[in-house]
Amino acid sequence: MKIREKIEHKEKLILIPQAAFSVETMGRNVKEKKDDIRTDYMIDRDRIIHSKSFRRLKHKTQVYIKMPGDHYRTRLTHTLEVNQIGKTIGKGIGLNEDLIEAIAMGHDIGHVAFAHSGEELLDKLLPQGFKHNENSVRVLTRIEKQGKGLNLTREVLDGILHHSGFTDKSKAFTLEGQVVRYSDKIAYVNHDIDDSIRAGLLNESDIPGIAIKVLGRTNSNRIDTLVKDCIYTTMENIKNGIKQVALSNEVFDALCVLRNFMFKKIYKGDILKAERDKAKFVLEQVFNYFFKHPDKMPEFYFNIVKEEGIYRGVADYISGMSDDYCLIMFHNIYVPKFVIC
């Protein structure tokens, strides 16, 4: 028996019947020979982690743009926290941790430079709009490996596509994908509060009292409450024949209070408006330059322009840039160089 087959057999013994078993995957767009060691979801996780777009996450903003200090979250550290929270929830419920990890590692891979400010700008500029979850799937299927894509399983791509949003109108068809969706919210709401307090933009006394009462006073208390509630509520749903990851009403409402507070105070608030506007200005000028001069882009993206149109090609190039690279590009294009006459 191959090691992979032993792992697949172990899944049958440990995971709940509603979990996504590796041996039952819906498969890839291009069929491949099975690996001797790794299951399909393990392979997907490895492919994402070893991709160029994953490495760029370390220089993409989470909330704060170019903050001094080593302790503020980046898009990469956010991804790692989502993975950790998701795997804890998955283990508690009895789900496939390898699938959760693959989805978590790839869920934000399509984010633009300068966080949601960049996403808002591209959404405004592009006739077809722009959503980072849809772009994550495009990066993994169309952009990576010079257009070949990573050939990931349907379960992973579906979980990545449906990780965004705060309602149940559109959700992943696997419980593992639904776990990542909740893990993403649990992670960013709490670590963004932590970073905001560190930056001196929030005080602990600013946090809504109802959220503290239900979830806890500290960052770790709140995450602990949310993770445990997600496990127990989901297990109760499954017991009652409902295949859905969820929080209890009280805890979900408290999380919504925290999220709405952060949107009003930080994400959309006046505190960071000047920096958000600067970031949008830089990104828009870089976009406009390559829109007018697509031949200045790397050949791969210029070919996309010829095949799929100018908006698609420029959006693919711009959305792949890290914050640092976008700033360097802006500087090279628009800032005069010193010339000795």
From TrEMBL:
<dbReference type="Pfam" id="PF01966">
    <property type="entry name" value="HD"/>
</dbReference>
<dbReference type="InterPro" id="IPR051094">
    <property type="entry name" value="Diverse_Catalytic_Enzymes"/>
</dbReference>
<protein>
    <submittedName>
        <fullName>Deoxyguanosinetriphosphate triphosphohydrolase</fullName>
    </submittedName>
</protein>
<dbReference type="Pfam" id="PF13286">
    <property type="entry name" value="HD_assoc"/>
</dbReference>
<dbReference type="InterPro" id="IPR026875">
    <property type="entry name" value="PHydrolase_assoc_dom"/>
</dbReference>
<dbReference type="InterPro" id="IPR006674">
    <property type="entry name" value="HD_domain"/>
</dbReference>
<keyword id="KW-0378">Hydrolase</keyword>
<dbReference type="InterPro" id="IPR003607">
    <property type="entry name" value="HD/PDEase_dom"/>
</dbReference>
<feature type="domain" description="HD">
    <location>
        <begin position="75"/>
        <end position="189"/>
    </location>
</feature>
